[in-house]
């Protein structure tokens, strides 16, 4: 790599007259565009030779950090593993060259994929049936809440428009409730990070007839299992509400516990989190929604069903009803190739090995937590599940913040964990290794985190000024947010 060229913009590598291509001789003559459609001056495009272009974009691509580069401990993001076999299955021409409007007789295999995944997810969660139509987790939340609203309205109970949500919830929960036309009632957390049962009882007592549902993530955003879940579900059910399970943190539950068995009525899960599809970067998502027995009629259509040895699609009824079961919530049958990847992952593990997902994710998270708690402040002690939260460095006298630690990790070749979330702690640092990482990988991360804590004590300025080895060093985050530079202006020739 030519370090002198590395990190420059393609415009800065431009030289007049250089070309990266050679076009054949024009055999079609000149065809002028109308003057109203023409530029007043030539476009300011870079002029570079082919090798410069290839090297420039290859170097840029190597700045992208992903699962193929190394370990990244982002919390509340879950899946960081995408087996190559999944990509092979999604690349099969029989899957990626079909059209959703083909005759059903020609896509029976694709419909079986959808049907088999519906049944697999039902078995894993205890739900009676699933729709695969929603295209993301938040889209699944909205769909689930629409199902709940339809359920109440069908029973003539349209006044139920309040949704209880813990203060530690993912931000999409209250947002989805608001989009669905519901009012959010926030329930507090106790000092140990769990739902305050007494506060919940008071909320329900204050609203005895208009509770539509309670949304919960279990384990919660702090990585803690809600110990009072049987009492919570009973309290909400007795008040006439339904329980909604945010499946963003399902990994540690696989093979250990099922949401339906905990008393949840409706749930969504993220195929792009729990079942191995690449997560992040704006890639395709999928947020299937499952319902307990008795709520299946409220699932949105279209929906794949099996009739004898053939697969068919239930279409929405053509009525004036605005209930979710009579309306599309996503195009056709969801993000199909994401569904293919998820089923591939489940079948690869099989029922014998998928039960190991939960215990291994819990083991890895607790191993990191216990290994680092002497250097990093652990605000809530005890067993965590798939993720946990530190409140910055234990030694606050260094002046080194969570942001500084995150920036310094870049120098060591690690992606930073989730920082300043959840909002319960001022210097929050959420770490989640998932079930897929080896002990050697975890030990390497632990060693680096200890090194950074040592640097903070002995030479804090090196941490505060990080990163030092990246193409772009420490930036002014506030200035970048308030005054982003989104275009390149060619400097006048000297």
From TrEMBL:
Domain Glycine dehydrogenase C-terminal, residue spans: 361-458
For this UniProt entry, the molecular function terms from Gene Ontology, in alphabetical order, are:
glycine binding; glycine dehydrogenase (decarboxylating) activity; pyridoxal phosphate binding
Q: Which organism is it from?
A: Prevotella lacticifex
Q: Which InterPro entries match?
A: Aminotrans_V_dom, GcvPB, GDC-P_C, GDC_P, PyrdxlP-dep_Trfase, PyrdxlP-dep_Trfase_major, PyrdxlP-dep_Trfase_small
Protein name per Swiss-Prot or TrEMBL: Probable glycine dehydrogenase (decarboxylating) subunit 2
The text of the family note is: Belongs to the GcvP family. C-terminal subunit subfamily.
UniProt EC number: 1.4.4.2
Write out the GO biological process terms: glycine decarboxylation via glycine cleavage system
Note the subunit structure: The glycine cleavage system is composed of four proteins: P, T, L and H. In this organism, the P 'protein' is a heterodimer of two subunits.
- Aminotransferase class V domain sequence ranges: 159-280
Keywords noted in UniProt = Oxidoreductase, Pyridoxal phosphate
Taxonomic lineage of the native organism? Bacteria, Pseudomonadati, Bacteroidota, Bacteroidia, Bacteroidales
User: What does this protein's UniProt record list under function?
Assistant: The glycine cleavage system catalyzes the degradation of glycine. The P protein binds the alpha-amino group of glycine through its pyridoxal phosphate cofactor; CO(2) is released and the remaining methylamine moiety is then transferred to the lipoamide cofactor of the H protein.
Offer a single GO CC term for the protein.
Answer: cytosol
Q: Which cofactor does it need?
A: pyridoxal 5'-phosphate
- Entry superkingdom: Bacteria
Q: Which residues carry this modification: N6-(pyridoxal phosphate)lysine?
A: 273
Q: Which reaction does it catalyse?
A: N(6)-[(R)-lipoyl]-L-lysyl-[glycine-cleavage complex H protein] + glycine + H(+) = N(6)-[(R)-S(8)-aminomethyldihydrolipoyl]-L-lysyl-[glycine-cleavage complex H protein] + CO2
Q: SUPFAM superfamilies, per this entry?
A: PLP-dependent transferases
């Amino acid at each position: 790599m030519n370090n002198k060229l590395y990190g420059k913009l393609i415009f800065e590598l431009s030289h007049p007259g250089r070309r990266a291509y050679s076009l054949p001789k024009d055999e079609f003559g000149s065809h002028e565009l109308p003057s109203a459609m023409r530029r007043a001056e030539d476009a300011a495009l870079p002029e570079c030779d082919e090798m410069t272009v290839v090297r420039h974009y290859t170097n840029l691509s190597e700045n992208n950090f992903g699962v193929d580069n190394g370990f990244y401990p982002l919390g509340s993001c879950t899946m960081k593993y995408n087996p190559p076999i999944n990509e092979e299955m999604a690349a099969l021409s029989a899957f990626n060259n079909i059209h959703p409007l083909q005759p059903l007789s020609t896509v029976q295999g694709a419909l079986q994929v959808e049907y088999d995944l519906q049944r697999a997810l039902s078995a894993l969660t205890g739900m009676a049936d699933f729709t695969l139509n929603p295209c993301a987790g938040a889209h699944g939340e909205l769909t689930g809440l629409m199902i709940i609203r339809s359920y109440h309205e069908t029973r003539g109970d349209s006044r139920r428009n309040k949704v209880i949500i813990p203060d530690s919830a993912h931000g999409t929960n209250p947002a989805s409730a608001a989009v669905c036309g519901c009012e959010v009632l926030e329930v507090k957390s106790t000092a140990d990070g769990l739902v305050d049962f007494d506060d919940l009882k008071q909320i329900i007592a204050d609203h005895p007839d208009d509770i539509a549902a309670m949304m919960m993530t279990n384990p919660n955003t702090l990585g803690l299992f809600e110990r009072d879940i049987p009492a919570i579900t009973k309290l909400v059910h007795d008040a006439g509400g339904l329980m909604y399970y945010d499946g963003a943190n399902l990994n540690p539950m696989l093979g250990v516990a099922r949401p339906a068995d905990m008393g949840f009525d409706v749930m969504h899960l993220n195929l792009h989190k729990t079942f191995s599809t690449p997560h992040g970067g704006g890639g395709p998502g999928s947020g299937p929604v499952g319902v307990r027995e008795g709520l299946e009629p409220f699932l949105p259509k279209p929906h794949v069903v099996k009739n004898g040895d053939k697969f068919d699609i239930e279409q929405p009824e053509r009525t004036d009803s605005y209930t979710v079961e009579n309306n599309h919530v996503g195009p056709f049958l969801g993000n199909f190739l994401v569904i293919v990847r998820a089923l591939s992952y489940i079948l690869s593990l099989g029922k014998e090995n998928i039960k190991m997902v939960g215990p291994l994710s819990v083991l890895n998270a607790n191993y990191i937590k216990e290994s680092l708690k002497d250097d990093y402040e652990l605000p809530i002690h005890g067993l965590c599940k798939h993720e946990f939260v530190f409140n910055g460095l234990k030694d606050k006298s260094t002046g080194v913040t969570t942001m500084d630690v995150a920036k310094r990790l870049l120098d060591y070749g690690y992606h930073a964990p989730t920082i300043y979330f959840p909002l319960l702690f001022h210097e929050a640092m959420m770490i989640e290794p998932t079930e897929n990482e080896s002990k050697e990988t975890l030990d390497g991360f632990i060693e680096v985190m200890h090194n950074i804590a040592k640097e903070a004590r002995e030479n804090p300025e090196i941490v505060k000024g990080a990163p030092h080895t990246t193409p772009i060093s420490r930036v002014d985050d506030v200035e970048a947010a308030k005054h982003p530079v989104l275009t390149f202006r060619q400097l006048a020739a000297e």
